[in-house]
Amino acid sequence: MTYIEKTALDTKKIKKEILQLKKEHNAVILAHNYQIDEVQDIADFTGDSLELARKAANLDADLIVFCGVDFMAETAAILSPEKTVLLPAADASCPMAEMITAGELRVLKERFSDAAVVCYVNTSAEVKAESDICCTSSNAVKVVQSLDEDQVIFVPDRNLGSYVARFTDKKVMPWEGFCFVHDRITPEDVINARKLHPDADVLVHPECRSEVVDLADYVYSTSGMIEHVCRSEKKEFIIGTEVGIIHRMKKDCPDKSYYPLSEKAICITMKRTDLYKVHKSLESLTPRVTVPEDVAYRARLAIQRMLDIK
Ligand code: 13P
Ligand code: SF4
């Protein structure tokens, strides 16, 4: 009893101090849709990778506190080199982004020299610097369709690559990377969830395997899913992505029911950020994310080409 009261009090105090520190530093807190509830609630803006990248590029602030994973903070630092970018959980990495290196991509480029290189934003700055254009889950199809080349090297997500290939005559060559959170969702998960909730729409993220995509009603980025549940006349939804997004859905559309397609869909690194780390980060102005300008310059071209596609 005493312990719970103390924690609640501390949280209140921490939130107040975060708001104060934010003001002092002219800071903005950006949070991805998978962040823990308290972090989403303290953020100035919550969104998917594309929305967060656009926001980071156009913010009127001196400091960005990025509550997400490293590649997202790096993208913000590349787009806003004049701003200080903080990643409160220094070890918040994306395992899929680590599945391809710039060296491996250079070998592919030599082998398929006529192909364009599309890299998912879930990559390091060095890999972006080797790419022609970036994409996110919400614009991958548009990005690939915008290219003049007939062949496309698509890194690192094999599932997003296969999803994009459904919508184009181009030869899409996906790298063998994957997201462990989405790749382990199975067709049986969809079949079982539909039995339990026969009236629900099934929404999945394109990082899911093809067999899962085939069984879904809709395929969306995280913010695409939020838009869908809010505008749909349906009342129940089975959500095939990281479970943290359900907090946003309940906030934005409280009168509907949301069921995770898999209770195991948890991204541990997305969950490493908490209010204490956000507070500490704003107080110490660390850990700071920077990208050397020679890499940032080339990566910026690939990101900007993506942002220029409406
Ligand atoms: P979104 O861009 O759809 O939010 O996806 C980011 C991500 O990391 C999905 O695993
Ligand atoms: Fe990376 Fe998957 Fe986590 Fe997204 S959910 S940050 S792709 S590991």
Number of DSSP helices? 15
- N- and C-termini, Cα separation: 53 Å
Quick one: CATH class of the largest domain? Alpha Beta
Query: What is the strand tally?
Result: 12
Dominant shape: globular
Specify the biggest β-sheet: 4 strands, parallel
- Structural class of the helices, strands and pairings? alpha/beta
Low-confidence stretches: none
The average pLDDT is: 96
CATH architecture of the largest domain: 3-Layer(aba) Sandwich
Strand order of the largest sheet: 2-1-3-4
Give Rg in angstroms. 20 Å
CATH superfamily of the largest domain: NadA-like
Task: Describe the protein in words.
The protein is α/β, with parallel strands linked by helices. The protein has 3 domains: 3-93 and 270-284, NadA-like (Rossmann fold, 3-Layer(aba) Sandwich), CATH 3.40.50; 97-179, Rossmann fold (3-Layer(aba) Sandwich), CATH 3.40.50.10800; 185-260, Rossmann fold, CATH 3.40.50.10800. 45% of the residues lie in helices and 16% in strands. The protein is built from 15 helices and 12 strands. Helix 4 links the parallel strand 3 and strand 4 (84-86). Helix 1 (2-24) runs parallel beside helix 14 (275-284) and helix 4 crosses helix 15 (293-307). The chain starts with a helix and ends with a helix. 1,3-dihydroxyacetonephosphate (13P) binds at residues 33, 48-49, 122, 136-137, 179, 207, 221-222.
